[in-house]
Structure formats: C-alpha cells, structure tokens
Amino acid sequence: MDFLMSGLAACGACLFTNPLEVVKTRMQLQGELQSPGTYQRHYKNVFHAFITIGKVDGLAALQKGLAPALLYQFLMNGIRLGTYGLVEAGGYLHTAEGTVNPALSAATGALTGITGAYLGSPIYMVKTHLQAQAASEIAVGYQYKHQIFPPQSWKLTLVASMVSSIAVVLAMTPFDVVSTRLYNQPTDAQGKGLMYRGILDALLQTARTEGIFGTYKGIGASYFRLGPHTILSLFFWDQLRILYYTYIK
To answer: What are the residues whose beta carbons fall under 8 Å from the beta carbon of 124, sequence distance 6 or more?
Structure first.
C-alpha cells in the first residue's frame, strides 16, 4: 500500500509541476556549450519561457513528456517512499529505546532514493527528450524526433485514459470517503445524522482530526475500482467516436 499511495501522490503532484519541468529543461539546454552573448536567448526567465512556449508551441506543449513523467514519478517515488515506509513500519529505524536512529534513517533514505533514481533514469531520459522538442524558432539543445504514438493511435487514447483515471481518483477519493461516512453515521429518531451536519462538515472534521491523508483512506481500493472503469469508459468512448466519424458521417 505504501508503494501505491506514494506513487499516486507523486503522480498527482506531477500533473501540476510538469509544465515547470518543461520550462526548466528548455532553460537548462539554452546556450549549451556556448559563451554568454553568442547565442539567442529564446527564454529570458521562467515567466517569459511559459509565455513563449504557450505562444509558439501551443499550451499543450507545457505538458510535453507527461506520460513518461508520470511513470517516472510513480516508479521513483513508489520505490523511494514505499520502501522507506516499509522499513520504518518494520521498526528497523528505531533504537532499543524506541527513538528514531538519525544515521539509519539518513542511510535508508539515501539508499532508497538512489535505487528509485537508478531504476527511473531511462524513463527520465525519454521525458527530457520529449520536453526539449520545440518549434524550430525556439528550439534549444539537440532535437530528438521521438513520437511515442502515431496520431489517432488507440495506444495514445489508452495512455490518456490512464492519466485521466489517476486524476479522477485523486479528485474523487475525499468525497467518496465522506459519502461513505455520511451514509454509515448513526442517526437520531428523526433520521438526522449524529456525527456530521453535511458534506463540508464531514470533510473538515476528517481533515482536522485525521489529517489530510485521512480523506484519502482506501485510495488503493478506490483506484482498482474507479481506475479500470475510467480507463475503459474513455477508451471505448473515443474509439466509438472515431468509428462514427469514419464510417457514418
């Protein structure tokens, strides 16, 4: 469960931070092995890079490399945080007195981090190649011509559906937890709930008492329930639309 939760949490964050990764990659490749002042600066700063990429490459370009980025985050953080959590839960990081051993904790964190980074390195390379791809007028660094999937490929639809399923689970799980608790709470003679006044009250009480992760209890089970359903629904919907516009319209 630690592997799954840490991986999903990292994927959720990646959906918001990937545009920053695109900008970072472009700015780091700009002027590669060239003396200052001898090359054209397409990206003057972070904000200028955002505007330039959105204007020239299109807004979708700010999410380039999202598929390998999600896979990388899931693999790296699943291994790093998941393994660390298992070691900690096993009591291997504690002294005989029950306190955390700083040296063991640091060593375990370093080892799990190195392992996750090593295994995720090939995926990170692909992500970097995709994020560096740009229109010729703002291109920096070597331009690989990778194309993971051809246009209109069912594989592209499948990957997009998988990404959507992660977003759906992350967005819906807190409400699913709350709805379960609202349905299960005891009631008085008039049928009024005795623990929660409504959805917002249930969310606030849960977050205050159990922490924000309390609203994500059962996320693993939620993904195995909602994930395949979301993936298959979006996949079949897109394929049916393609068939309709190809053979009927």
So the answer is: 68, 72
